[in-house]
Structure formats: structure tokens, C-alpha cells
Amino acid sequence: MTAVSPRPQGIPTPIRKLFFLGNPEKRECGAVLQSLLGFVKSRCEVVGSELSADGRKAIAAGADAIVILGGDGTLIGVARSLGRDQIPLIGVNLGKLGFLAEFSVEEFRGMFDRILRDASLVNRRLVLKSSVERGSATLYSAVAVNDCVIHAGPPFRVITLAVEINGRPLTEVSGDGLIVGTPTGSTAHSLSAGGPIVQPGVSAIVMTPLCPHSLTHKAIVMESDARITIRIDRANAGTTAIIDGQASWPLRAGDLVQLSRFEHDLLPVRNPLHPPWHKLVTKLHWGKLPNYD
Domain total for the chain? Predict the structure, then answer.
């Protein structure tokens, strides 16, 4: 088995050029953006800003990092738009959970100077590349930060998926589908489906069956260099491959979904005020004892 070695990604130290992106669907985002632009203007060079989740303009402008105003979904959308050109992403949470968008507006202001100079705050997280093949043609390809979900879809009859790992047959799953995800995505759809919680920095891929019609199919964690092939043996009219809940492609019997590690890592900036399991404990209440009162 040949290990995948992602191409080294340079992390600028210090960060000098920032690009600001904000979720246009959040009403408060425009005002927060203008406030933060005023705050940072004397501390660094701002090479652009807009209400969008498209990070390509930041790359064209030569940004060292992108400040993203929104929630986890906004940050994931920006990361997916960057493709091979991943740069540090600083998430300012205007959403709910904030697993990836780790800073509140106040924390971003208070930690700003350290964010610019401290390269140790930039994490590296595994990302997946996915493709749909039909015959000899590749119909669709995308980067997945959280997961690729193969879902039965309407009329919601059981579908059958044949799974191979590194060219060798592993199993056949009948049920509502299958989730193939990253450690970052382990606390998303996979967790709801009974999958394991994996620390984000772990180099691994998680595969979680969706309501399998079997007592023996359980979630598994595999090496990050695994090459996964899923053949659609039985499908519904609405059977679909869904990437990060943001993009999708219809599937039919005979299609192949190929998944493997993407050669470029996600580079989120962590909040040094929060311990590693902060969001899991404070937002999802992991390990909280029952209230016996």
C-alpha cells in the first residue's frame, strides 16, 4: 500500500494580506464586515472583501489568509471553492455550532495580532476528493471537507452498494446509503448515524452505513491512504451522491463513486482560547451527566 503524501502547503508567517468573505444570507454579516474592516485596516493589508463564499478572488488577489464571516457551512463552501489552492481560513462564527468557525467577533478582535503572527494556530485537516464514474467517463468530481453521502432518495426503497478498498472487495451494504467522511466530518452527519467521534487532526477516513439492513454492518475507521470504490448495484430514481450537504449528483445502477484523500489539506485557524474538545462538550454536551433533580 502506497501512502499518499500531500504536497507541502506553505503557511505564511506572519500573515500580511487578508481577504474578507461573508455569508450574504446572514442579515448582520454586512455590518460586521464593515466593522472588522475598520478594525484591521491599520494592522494589516486587506486585499479584498465581498459577501460571497467563493474564495477564488482571494487567491487571485494574493491573500495570505481569508477571514470568513458566517458559520461552518460558509467556511466549508469557501474551502471547497479553493480546491488545490488552500490557504489559512479564519472563521468568525455568526452561525450556531462553530466547530470550524472558532472565533466570536470579540475573540477575533482580541486575538487578532496573535492570529497574524502565530503559525502554530493553523491546523492541517484531511480532505477527500470524490468522483462519479459511469462507464469510462468521469461525470462529476468535487472536494469534500466533511463527507460524501450516498443516499437512497425517493421512493426511499433499500439500495445496495458494493464497497471495495484499494481494489479488493470489502462488503455489500443494503440500506439507506453510506457516509464516507473525514475526521472533521465525524461530528456531522456520521455522528447522527451512529459513527465514531474522531479527533480532527487524526489521519483517517470514516465509513458509516446509513440504516443498514443488517446487524453486522458497523462504522469503520480506516487509514487515510485508502482508495474507496463504491458501486451502485441497486438504486432509486432519487439516489444521489451529496458532498458536504452543499453539492449533489444523481446516481444510477452501475455508477462508481471513487473516494480518496485529497492531496491538499484544509488549513483552519484554531482559537487558542478553546481546548481541543471545547465545542463537543459545550455545544453538543458530550459526556454530560443526566439531571437527577
Answer: 2
Q: Is 233 a catalytic residue?
A: no
Q: Are residues 73 and 145 in the same domain?
A: no
Question: Does residue 6 lie within any of the structural domains?
Answer: no
**Whole-model pTM above 0.85?**
yes
> What are 80's three cell numbers?
471547497
Q: Is the pLDDT reported for residue 39 higher than 50?
A: yes
What does the pLDDT look like over 81-131, one tens digit per residue? 999 999 999 999 998 888 999 999 999 999 999 999 999 999 999 999 999
Per DSSP, 184 falls in state G
Q: What is the CATH number of the domain that holds 118?
A: 3.40.50.10330
Under 8 Å between Cβ of 75 and 268: yes
* Kind plus residue range of the DSSP H or E element containing 235: none
Structural element, H or E, at residue 93: strand 89-93
Ramachandran region of residue 96, left (φ > 0), alpha (ψ -120 to 50) or beta? Answer: alpha
Report d(CA 150, CA 173) in Å as an integer.
Answer: 11
Catalytic residue among 72, 176, 244, 255: 72
**CATH code of the domain in which 203 resides:** 2.60.200.30
Query: Is the pLDDT confidence value at 238 over 50?
Result: yes
Residues 253 and 138 in one domain: yes
pLDDT digits (tens, 9 = 90+) for 52-68: 999 999 999 999 999 99
Q: How far apart are CA 165 and CA 149, in angstroms?
A: 17
Q: Which of 115, 25, 87, 76 is nearest to 242 (CA)?
A: 76
Q: Which residues of 65-86 are buried (b: 16+ CB within 10 A; e: fewer)?
A: bbbbbbbbbbbbbbbbbbbeeb
